[in-house]
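Q: Given only this backbone (220 positions), what sequence would you predict?
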């Protein structure tokens, strides 16, 4: 069945940006609960935004090396039911959390990345991002699209991230055929502040480039 590529707007820090993203057609809104990030948001503040999101919109709590107890605590406060996990979270922890949440395991295409590694997370969706030695997401760097494409066969749902903008997302969709795309810095005027025009142009570019479900394409 043909469906468009889904869109995730990440690093949202205020209600106006969340509203603008949803109104333009975003499917997922990401809230960063990693304290070292310039896009960090307090769980209680995120709760006020999440409560106003339409039921169809998936609110995603983004974490780096967080233990399950911390994630559950933030989920209770903020009210999200989907978690995105960066860092060294093990397959076992992901499977445990997947009993309670929709889990997105984030992996970067560093020199050690092996596409088949994504098969270690069968209970999770997988987000493929660019590698950065210090930052976890929002780097503005483009990931290895060929590696992301190769990972598609090992995942149930792949989200492509890393340096996407309105200018290159069409090429990215053509190269990888992901189920969804994720954007953060590519639609910002400053860290944590979305640019309304950039949002509109990005989402329009995704819609123009995704006439069919990528999962239906042959991987042979």
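A: Predicted residues:
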């Amino acid at each position: 069945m043909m469906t468009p590529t889904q869109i995730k707007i990440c690093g949202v820090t205020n209600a106006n940006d969340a509203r603008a993203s949803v109104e333009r057609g975003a499917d997922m809104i990401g809230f960063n609960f990693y304290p070292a990030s310039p896009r960090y948001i307090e769980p209680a503040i995120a709760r006020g935004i999440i409560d106003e999101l339409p039921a169809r919109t998936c609110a995603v709590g983004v974490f780096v090396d967080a233990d399950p107890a911390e994630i559950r605590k933030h989920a209770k406060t903020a009210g999200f039911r989907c978690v995105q996990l960066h860092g060294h979270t093990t397959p076992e922890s992901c499977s445990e959390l997947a009993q309670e949440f929709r889990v997105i395991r984030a992996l970067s295409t560093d020199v050690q990345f092996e596409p088949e590694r994504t098969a270690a997370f069968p209970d999770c969706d997988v987000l493929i991002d660019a590698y950065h030695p210090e930052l976890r997401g929002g780097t503005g760097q483009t990931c290895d699209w060929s590696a992301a494409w190769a990972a598609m066969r090992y995942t149930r749902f792949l989200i492509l991230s890393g340096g996407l903008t309105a200018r290159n997302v069409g090429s990215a969709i053509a190269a990888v055929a992901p189920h969804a795309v994720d954007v953060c810095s590519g639609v910002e005027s400053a860290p944590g502040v979305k640019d309304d025009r950039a949002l509109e142009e990005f989402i329009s570019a995704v819609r123009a480039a995704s006439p069919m479900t990528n999962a239906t394409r042959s991987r042979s």
